[in-house]
Specification:
Structural class: mainly alpha
Radius of gyration: 23 Å
Shape: globular
Number of strands: 2
Strand content: under 5%
Largest sheet: 2 strands, antiparallel
CATH architecture of the largest domain: Up-down Bundle
Number of helices: 21
CATH class of the largest domain: Mainly Alpha
Amino acid sequence: MWQPLSIHHSVNIRYVKQETSPLDAPLATAAGHKPHLSFWQVWNMSFGFLGIQFGFALQNANVSRIFETLGAKVEDIPILWVAAPVTGLIIQPIIGYLSDRTWNRLGRRRPYFLVGAILASAALFIMPNSPVLWVAAGMLWIMDASINISMEPFRAFVGDNLPSAQRTMGFAMQSFFIGTGAVIASMLPYMLANWFGVSNTAAAGVVPDSVKWSFYLGGGVFFLAVLWTIIRSHEYSPEELASFEENKETEGYGQTARTPVEYQANGNRQMRRGALILLAGSLLVGSLARMNLEKELFILAGGIMIVGILLAISGVLQRGGRFNNAFVTIVNDFQDMPATMKQLAWVQFFSWFSLFAMWIYTTAAVTSHVFGTSDTASELYNQGANWVGVCFAVYNGIAAVVAFLLPLLAKRFGRRGAHAICLVAGALGLLSVFVIKDYHWLLASMVGIGIAWASILSMPYAILTGALPANKMGYYMGVFNFFIVIPQIIAASILGFLLSKFFAGEAIYAMLLGGASFILAAFLVFRVEDKE
């Protein structure tokens, strides 16, 4: 293997021969073919997701609780949560673009694993000690940005290291660690309170110790798990990646070679489209202001305006002959994304709209609809909130088990059919919450949600990697996150409005909307072309 001595530019790299083999380097294979990795090699390269999911699970299960404890109203929670998806929308494509062009002593993706782990672990220690609501909202922004820095390259890591025949297993392994990490992390407040006697209540406006210590433990696990992957995994050099036959076959996917004249014409088109999108966003802002609607809807309108501005800027640069820069490359690659990716975008949109509705409103829905209280200082409310943690642990535990069954399900029904079946199971799980009165039965609902969650974390990525050019794997994985983030922004923008205007503020109806969205996603799966 070759290691860099210095890097002066993304394409100007000097290498020196490394005399010793790296830990867990893949076995030798026939020239031009990416080697199959052993079970434990795949295990080691995915292990960091255990820590990443500790961070996400603690965030998903407890941040709404922290917000409510610090004085947020139920209808205000979506606007506070919008920091997380907006951060991912910005961070992931940038990290993907940079990691595609990185090669140093740590490798290609692993430097970003390390930086993100350090920052995220620090944020997990600080978050539960937020003194007021605005500080907690700011810490959510920082924490989510840090987690995204670590997480984004992990998806591309599978595409880099595994041959196409092993990618379903690789993403299923990530699903296993996501499920396992989330089981433990989601149950931490419950376990600390009921098994170790840590206080589960506190004065009004103060986060209980059971939640605080859960975040401290999560920060430690996050860092150590990611460090394990960094130490125990191998990465191919840019030259090695370029030499593999399957990567040569995908070089043209989603890429359009343009002459200077074509760049100018493309710039003209982008300027026109950008102007139209900016006008639409401006008109929407004006309409919302006149109708005096909820402030969350302005986030959606503002996002439309920003898209128009960015598109217009890219167009201006290309018209002026300034097209050899990262900004124009990022915008054009988004425009030129492969057809399979565009088709999967709709599936992702409706799948993640459902998930975000669940994550935002499950605590409020369960405590009010099943436990019958909205008093955040009461023991009954905190018992209900802890039970939500148990429920989240159960669906993640189901996902961890189902992850190893997904390759078999895909072999029987194809990857599209398997994914559709799992999404329908998730829909049934969310819809059933509406009719449950005994909180123990919520665990049955979580089975269906866990099946859907396992597939959402693996099947779309297994389908996608076969349609991506290898030299832009990181960037397109980051862009694919748009179709996770955009539905989250829309959910944060409209769910509070819909619940307050049409459902008397009852959080349980968010579960019904989520179930319907899962069903729509299942139908859209069959429009997707699976190249492998």
